[in-house]
Design goal:
Number of domains of chain A: 2
Number of helices of chain B: 13
Number of strands of chain A: 5
Number of strands of chain B: 4
Low-confidence stretches of chain B: none
Helix content of chain B: over 70%
Low-confidence stretches of chain A: 148-156
CATH class of the largest domain in chain A: Alpha Beta
Oligomer: heterodimer
CATH topology of the largest domain in chain A: Rossmann fold
Distance between the termini of chain A: 84 Å
Largest sheet of chain A: 5 strands, parallel
Strand content of chain A: 5-15%
Number of domains of chain B: 1
Strand content of chain B: under 5%
Number of helices of chain A: 12
Strand order of the largest sheet of chain B: 1-4
CATH architecture of the largest domain in chain A: 3-Layer(aba) Sandwich
Largest sheet of chain B: 2 strands, antiparallel
Radius of gyration of chain A: 27 Å
Order of helices and strands of chain A: HHEHHEHHEHHHEHEHH
Structural class of chain A: alpha/beta
Mean pLDDT of chain B: 88
Structural class of chain B: mainly alpha
Helix content of chain A: 55-70%
CATH superfamily of the largest domain in chain A: SGNH hydrolase
């Protein structure tokens, strides 16, 4: 019978202590959540500089550290395996075996335009990732020039020469700024810009208009790239010229797995 | 008064003797290592794909969620969740704070967050659900009521014992979780900053109230909220246990209510008056984490109020029925 007395005493004291602590926690928590205080010091500090931007990048370790950034091509939309040219290029470099390969991040976002890229480059997290890399694969511009591949699926807004001509100068200017910005964020990384192919190659009626615009754009992009150090343009135009159907995915806009593989091989060749 | 505490003592000893509390401890001691192991496997796998740098991982999570926002196949409600998630992750990343810093304390926080609405209430049911009904199944209720003690005092002594065990269950859940997961992830992490005070306006997150809270303080607040939920569930189960003759039926009724609650919250229903049901309000810790409420118009104050009303009504019914009812057989 005595042992029951002890059980009672122990559980009574323990539960009293626990209850007290839990009630304090409840009152404190509920109070803090229901009557939040604005954090003035914090909001001022955060607008100045996020702590992440002050972080030093990791030291060079003699490996490829690859980041992809840009639009749906960078992301790999249309690739049934989801790898895209970025991961495929990383795999290709790994196979070549010259240096160890680390694929850091794929920052590609579907539908990204040059303006959105410029905004994205202001994000401390994105800057951090770019600083960590020494190879940056960039694909951007197609969404500016063609207002997204989505237009094609709805059939509402097929590309026309006038609209394309109108979009070109602005896009070119923003690409130039984006390249400068990238260089500022990471002064040493190898930047590989993926040239455009004609996504409308397998649609007879749009083919010619598309070709003309793409060629013009690629020439402009090439001259921007050439002006700057440590940047290369990987051409993809010819890859999709002869038999676009074989290398484009179901949406007639993005490459399929085979298409991405061919782009990736180009990238690897360009880096060797 | 002394006599009352002797009655409470009697009830506590009965609960201990029935070994229900040991079962609760045992379940925790079995489950926590399983989850810890799973979590460890997961973090090892993550480390393989992202190296040791959590920042890359968080940035990728942000990008992945941004991508899913542009998809038409994702329902609008999920998009709101993801937009909020993106902004919170962005905040952690900008401040160079790892939102998932591994450690025993972080594991405990996440484990309790996940078990607050279902698992811990279930543990409480193991004790609460048969408190009165078992006396009737075994017939001992007659002995209890033939004593020269007022009926409401008998019930109150049972209720007091129950509330004591609610505190013990919540506290021991934390203790066991910390002790066991610490063996996997280390016992540190009390002072890791956790951001609280994300105020949600639709899909936008207002960052003016955000504060870095040390994790131990976060745990204290979380425990308090979980305890409140536990008390409400205990009182409701207590009422059911008074009303229903069989222990099995009493457990099933409460379990059905709890499970339907977790289904309803997942439906994120357009049926807004569902917010007055107690079971969709059990996720108090969600408010602390800055997650959106399952139904529009729910706030912490609303949820606490709703739960309090349910609890009060169930106490009134329990005492009303228990003191009036004829005890036959």
């Amino acid at each position: 019978m005595n042992s029951w007395k002890w059980i009672w005493r122990v559980s009574a004291w323990l539960s009293a202590a626990a209850s007290l602590l839990l009630i304090v926690g409840f009152v404190y928590g509920a109070g803090k959540l229901m009557f939040p205080k604005p954090n003035l010091a914090e909001s001022e500090a955060s607008s100045a500089a996020a702590p992440l931007t002050e972080r030093e990048p990791s030291p060079e370790d003699g490996s490829y550290r690859i980041v992809a950034i840009g639009d749906s091509l960078a992301k790999g939309t249309g690739d049934t395996t989801g790898q895209g040219f970025a991961r495929r290029a990383a795999a290709g470099l790994e196979e070549a075996g010259r240096k160890p390969v680390h694929f850091l991040n794929n920052l590609g976002i579907n539908g990204m335009t040059t303006q959105e890229l410029l905004d994205e480059l202001k994000q401390p997290g994105v800057q951090y990732v770019l600083k960590e890399a020494n190879v940056i694969l960039l694909s951007i511009g197609a969404n500016d020039l063609f207002q997204g591949g989505a237009a094609l699926q709805t059939g509402a807004d097929a590309p026309n020469t006038a609209a394309l001509e109108q979009a070109l100068p602005g896009t070119e200017e923003r690409l130039g700024r984006a390249l400068d910005e990238l260089r500022k964020i990471n002064p040493t990384a190898e930047i590989v810009y993926i040239g455009l192919y004609n996504p409308f190659g397998d649609i007879e009626s749009l083919r010619e208009e598309g070709d003309r615009g793409i060629v013009e754009w690629n020439a402009k992009a090439a001259s921007l790239i050439v002006e700057r150090d440590g940047m290369t343009l990987t051409p993809t135009f010819d890859l999709f010229q002869r038999d676009p159907g074989a290398y484009l995915s179901f949406d007639h806009f993005h490459p399929n797995s085979a298409g991405y593989e061919r782009i990736a091989r180009r990238i690897v060749q360009g880096m060797e | 008064m002394k006599r009352f505490w002797a009655m409470v003592q009697n009830e506590v000893v009965k609960i201990v003797k029935k070994k229900r509390f040991y079962i609760v401890l045992l379940i925790l001691a079995v489950l926590v290592p399983i989850f810890s192991y799973a979590q460890m496997k997961q973090s090892l796998e993550r480390r393989e794909s992202y190296g040791s740098d959590w920042r890359l991982e968080v940035q990728q999570a942000i990008i992945d969620n941004q991508n899913s926002l542009s998809s038409d196949r994702v329902p609008q409600e999920w998009k709101v969740y993801r937009q909020i998630y993106i902004q919170q992750m962005q905040y952690y990343l900008d401040h160079d704070v790892n939102p998932n810093e591994p450690g025993g304390v972080t594991f405990t926080r996440e484990f309790i967050d996940n078990s607050a609405t279902l698992f811990i209430p279930l543990m409480i049911l193991t004790i609460a659900s048969d408190l009165v009904s078992s006396e009737r199944t075994t017939g001992t209720i007659k002995m209890l009521l033939t004593r020269p003690v007022r009926r409401w005092k008998v019930l109150l002594s049972k209720l007091t014992a129950l509330l004591m065990f609610v505190s013990l269950i919540v506290a021991s859940a934390y203790l066991i979780c910390y002790l066991i997961s610490g063996a996997f992830f280390g016992y540190s992490g009390w002072n890791i900053p956790i951001f609280t005070g994300f105020v949600l306006n639709g899909s936008d997150v207002d960052l003016t109230y955000v504060q870095a809270t040390p994790q131990w303080q976060y745990l204290l607040m979380q425990a308090g909220l979980v305890w409140f939920v536990g008390v409400v569930v205990a009182l409701l189960a207590f009422m059911v246990s008074v009303l229903v003759r069989s222990t099995a039926a009493s457990i099933v009724v409460m379990m059905a209510a709890l499970i339907s609650g977790s289904i309803l919250t997942n439906m994120a229903s357009a049926w807004t008056s569902a917010k007055y049901l107690f079971m969709v309000n059990l996720g108090l810790t969600e408010y602390l984490a800055g997650n959106p409420a399952p139904i529009k118009g729910m706030t912490l104050g609303f949820s606490i109020g709703t739960l309090a009303v349910w609890a009060a009504v169930s106490v009134i019914i329990s005492f009303g029925v228990f003191t009036k009812r004829d005890v036959l057989t």
